[in-house]
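Q: Predict the assembly, please.
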Amino acid sequence: MARVYALSNRMKHAKPSFVREILKVAVRPDIISFAGGLPAPELFDVDGVRAATAETLEHNSTGALQYGPTDGVAAFKQQIVGVMARRGMADIALERILVTTGSQQGIDLIAKVMLDPGDVVLVERPAYLAAVQVFELYEAQLRGVECDADGMNTDALEAQIADLRARGERAKFIYTVATFGNPSGATLSLERRQKLLEIAAREEILLIEDDPYSELRFSGDSLPPVASFAGERESPWVVYMSTLSKFVAPGLRLGWMILPEGLVGPLTIAKQAADLHSSTFNQHVAAKYLETGRLEAALPRIREVYGRKAQAMMNALHAHFPTGTLEFNAPSGGMFLWGKMADGVDTLALVQRAVDAGVIYVPGATFFPDERRANYLRLSFATPSLEQIEEGVGRLARAVLD
Amino acid sequence: MARVYALSNRMKHAKPSFVREILKVAVRPDIISFAGGLPAPELFDVDGVRAATAETLEHNSTGALQYGPTDGVAAFKQQIVGVMARRGMADIALERILVTTGSQQGIDLIAKVMLDPGDVVLVERPAYLAAVQVFELYEAQLRGVECDADGMNTDALEAQIADLRARGERAKFIYTVATFGNPSGATLSLERRQKLLEIAAREEILLIEDDPYSELRFSGDSLPPVASFAGERESPWVVYMSTLSKFVAPGLRLGWMILPEGLVGPLTIAKQAADLHSSTFNQHVAAKYLETGRLEAALPRIREVYGRKAQAMMNALHAHFPTGTLEFNAPSGGMFLWGKMADGVDTLALVQRAVDAGVIYVPGATFFPDERRANYLRLSFATPSLEQIEEGVGRLARAVLD
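A: Predicted assembly structure:
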């Protein structure tokens, strides 16, 4: 009974996420998955969450179980202020924080508030897939900006903006994962951070900085968020978003946006229509958890574990792939290695062979917003154990090398 | 620094919810609020939630804290099947259930999947405000269908459909809160339930049945959901949605949709883009809670408390309002009385006087999707205590009667 419904135009070309389709295969116990960006489950602070939950239900059960404010629970927002101060953005006003149901919702809300069909959005090339999918659902035109080991090339960005101007167009916003990019693993240099914000301000184009991974640095010095370069006064041209998913727990579905004053109203209206507010239960639990300081105690271990896993994967790749068959970045944090195979290799065509060999990855083509390239692949080292990483890379080499 | 951003067209006329603006006033401790549809906090089963949370973190912490499937956690969906069976819809296939972040998200997702700017949506007159706001954000044209004590008038619905047809238009969907309507308190009769589904099927117009309140029946016999009249085979023309918010806890932000087969794919894509999935933590906790049977034990008390509060409010209104100054329905369940004052009274203009007297309600005009009427008001009896109801109605009478 395949009914044809009169769906909205935005759904006409919508496809389910390739990554999430792959993840369905990845639950087979015989498969080692390098596909998902799932945090290492051994790092979940179960005792900490248990204590925070017990405390919340003991002292604040009504607040936790009742409806709450659309913009978020004040106690949780207060903790976000602390997290942001540690990241180099001090004294964020509570009014500028909008709590979201994961940072995915932040992406959806900014798209809803900003995009009409045909509007141009500038993204990294390669870009975070689930953001690209949101922008496509809002019928945006996507343009990729070339990236290298130092993140988005700001000269290429200026060239894109000039090219658009020559056509009488302008981008609605620039979307970037500036720190430990997904899938690239690349981190925008200090110089480019300043430059990027300058370009946004000069061109009056919103910059959306999505920052899920910055807590997961395992080597080198921290860089402050792009948004922090606005200085004393907030910039009206930057929206920052982040999430608890990668360093506390994705199951809580809690993220946040830091908005310029003029966008607080529209985003709050969009949030209210989307789900009234994010779970007050989870916000109270997260606030209690962050209050205890347990996270500060847990972070060194989180960073160390991801650092060891990244190193193990790089070692295994060096051991199993002959020189010239697979190049990859050496990330300073995050969850991903971004591999490049020889020209002419099609990593999408090789997925089935990998699955047959008992390993899975995400083919790179899916991350290109335009000008697709077939010879890349994304490998996540976050979820598997060290042993699985070694075994899985061996399987991968047997599957994809002739 | 009032920046003018180039917002999307959908935001041009968007306003914050009047109800939620009023609720900000309602937190003043001296104000008795009849405004919000907040469940009575004394009914929250804190011990039940505590036990379910402890159990979840003891036995299933990884499942609860990790990312999960977009469509929902299987154990929670299994419990929804049980809830639906009790409501008169047996053996719902798990594949047809999509877990949402409250039923508000269900409204947003169906709008996203179905509506292009200018599309027609048929709603009750008066209609659930937060649904109307969503449809307006998707730039729909709203048309109200006249209602009475038996809910949406199906003859008026057919007349609207015929009128649209005469103009070469057709509605994308019909949205209804058929049981204990918000704000009307009205419940669609058995006859009209059958008729409504017949009309939807004959005209091939989707029917969206939003059912947040049906567990809160305190008098009379239960009526099965409109969606249940599809019989043995599911109807491809009805989407059912509900939520835990009114009988477990809104703070969990958990709702669900029951979809016809052909809409499962598009809605899942839209859900994934919106927030990846609803909180796995909360889904596992809710599944454990529902498994224990504590809800079945709690429901009789929930119904009794709301019944007593409704009766108290009706008694107080009879006592404080002289005959002819305020008519209202006598609901069999839900959270609301829908009051009608004399022609010429403007309940919006009277809000400030009510606040000054220490009581608040929602002016009725805000619930009319078209053809606004000024002399109605919505009174919720759910949140205040019996004493507050008596005191608040006294204040209300002093404020709004000359």
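The first helix of chain A runs from residue 18 to 26. Residues 179 and 187 of chain A are 4 Å apart (CA to CA).
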